[in-house]
Amino acid sequence: MIHLIVELSRYALIILFAVYTYQCFAVLQSKDAERAQRMFRRQSRMMYLIHFTAFLVICFVTENANYLIFYMLQLLLLIMVQNCYRIIYPKASRLLVNNMCMLLTIGFIILTRLNGERAFRQFLIAAVSCAGSLLIPYLIQRMGFFRRLTWIYAAVGIILLAIVCIAGPTSYGAKISLSVFGFAIQPSEFVKIIFVFFVAAMYYRSTDLKQVIITTAVAAVHVLILVASRDLGGALIFFVAYMAMVYVATKKLLYFVGGIAAGSVAAVVAYKLFSHVRTRVVAWQKPLAVIDDEGYQICQSLFAIGTGGFFGMGLYQGMPERIPKVEEDFIISAIAEELGGLFAICVVLVCVSCFLMFLNIAMQLKDGFYKLVALGLGTVYGIQVFLTLGGAVKFIPSTGVTLPLISYGGSSMLSSLVIFAIIQGLYILREDEGAINHERNRKTENKKTDGAKVKVQDLN
């Protein structure tokens, strides 16, 4: 009986998620507001069915009634998040809310399968983070002083990164976290957000050469501290986000090309200086040749993906626990092995949907500061997803970056939810800008109509 349930669930989960993913892109082409709302409601139903089906399998396989209680707590959280956004922020993007909840759901499912204790901790962090982040869209709309805190952003970011570089413990060759009251905190996850605000504030003021030099120098300090901490994945995220923002702000290709050239030289220097970078490159180039040492992690990741095929082995039917750090760095491999390659592709497409929404919001915002903020946060999100997925499939060397909202990690979870909340605030600002412009155009048209009527009367 259990085997039958697992087998049927493999296909049910893929079909439900495929329908959900299709709606992500179909709704972008819909001009009918009512039809879009129906799609959003359909997405919610698909998400709840995926959640229920997966935990039904988990409860049957483990025969642990505690997972039923855990499922109910998660369900309550998801319902509350969706309804809070719908009631408090009626102009918020339903697509982003649905995608955020969908990614959280997938994370809860796969983490429960891998490590129930860690899954519960992740759930508690997510619950607190969701509650706290609900205030952020309100702050974005009401507080215009964010653009005036330029050097405060820079000072806080540099100080936090420097503390980690000096006092942080070394883990897997890098210093990325601090222990505060027994909790491991990764400051770079939050610094990347205020770093985006710093760059946006600088280029909102001016984009002349002097401003570019000053901003680049401060950005370089951030990156160099991360390099000194050997957090090269974090350094790459900061670098790519800055390059995207400087190009869009200045519209000068020379700055972008020069930055890429400097980054390429820096990558070669890092390869020469740091042994753990060379280790990861060797593991990327020839993992099977060093499978007993450096290449073990990436080989197990590739084995898991290959074993799962398109339809997966089914929950608890694979061996994803063989992958070191699977809950953090290689969670997409566990998803591919047990839920299927098609399911994993849908995860990627949902992340792409979020990224496109971020960029769409950035392009339509009129305010230059918030336009750059949306672009920067979108780039941060996009490059983080790319680094995680690229490392798992051996497209690029592994960087140790987590998959937002899915991988285990409190700092990553909180920072990702903050990013989504900021984007929601910017989306609401965009909607308000659109309403103001529409009202202004309506008044202009009315004035023209009234003027035409007056002329007609004069002629008569």
Q: Which terms summarize this structure?
A:
460 residues, mainly alpha, two-stranded antiparallel ribbon, two-stranded antiparallel sheet, 17 helices
Briefly characterize the structure.
The protein is mainly alpha-helical and 460 residues long.
Overview of the structural elements:
The protein is mainly α. Helices cover 77% and strands 2% of the residues. The chain is built from 17 helices and four strands. It has helices at residues 2-26, 33-62, 66-88, 94-114, 116-133, 136-142, 150-167, 188-205, 209-228, 232-250, 253-273, 275-285, 296-308, 331-339, 341-364, 368-392, 410-459; strands at 170-171, 174-175, 178-180, 183-185. The strands form two sheets. A two-stranded antiparallel sheet has the order 1-2. A two-stranded antiparallel ribbon has the order 3-4. The longest helix is centred in the C-terminal third of the chain and has 50 residues, at 410-459. It is globular. The mean pLDDT is 88.
Low-confidence stretches: none
Query: Main beta sheet: strand number and arrangement?
Result: 2 strands, antiparallel
What portion of residues belong to β-strands? under 5%
E-strand count: 4
Secondary-structure map:
Elements: H1 2-26, H2 33-62, H3 66-88, H4 94-114, H5 116-133, H6 136-142, H7 150-167, E1 170-171, E2 174-175, E3 178-180, E4 183-185, H8 188-205, H9 209-228, H10 232-250, H11 253-273, H12 275-285, H13 296-308, H14 331-339, H15 341-364, H16 368-392, H17 410-459
Helix pairs in contact: 1-2, 1-15, 2-3, 2-4, 3-4, 3-5, 4-5, 4-15, 5-17, 6-17, 7-8, 7-9, 8-9, 8-10, 8-16, 9-10, 10-11, 10-16, 11-12, 13-14, 14-15, 15-16, 15-17, 16-17
